[in-house]
Amino acid sequence: MNWSFRIARILGIDVRLHVTFLLLMAFYAWKGWATSGRAFGALLGILLPATIFGCVLLHEFGHVLMARRFGIRTRDVTLLPIGGVARLESTGETPMQELAIALAGPAVNLAIAAGAGAFVLLARVPTTPIDPSTGAGSFATWLIVSNLFLLGFNLIPAFPMDGGRVLRALLSWKGDRIRATRIASATGRALAVVLAMAGLLVLHQPMLLLIALFVWMGAGQEAEAVSTGALLEGVPVRKAMLTEFRTVAPHDTLGDISRLVLAGFQHDFPVAQEDRLMGLLLRDDLFAALRSQGPDTPVGTVMRQRFPVAAPDELVDRMLRRVQFDDGPSSIPVLEHGRLVGLVTAENVGEFVMLSAALAGRRR
Ligand SMILES: [Zn+2]
Question: What's the gap in Å between 72 CA and the centre of ligand 1?
Answer without folding.
Answer: 16
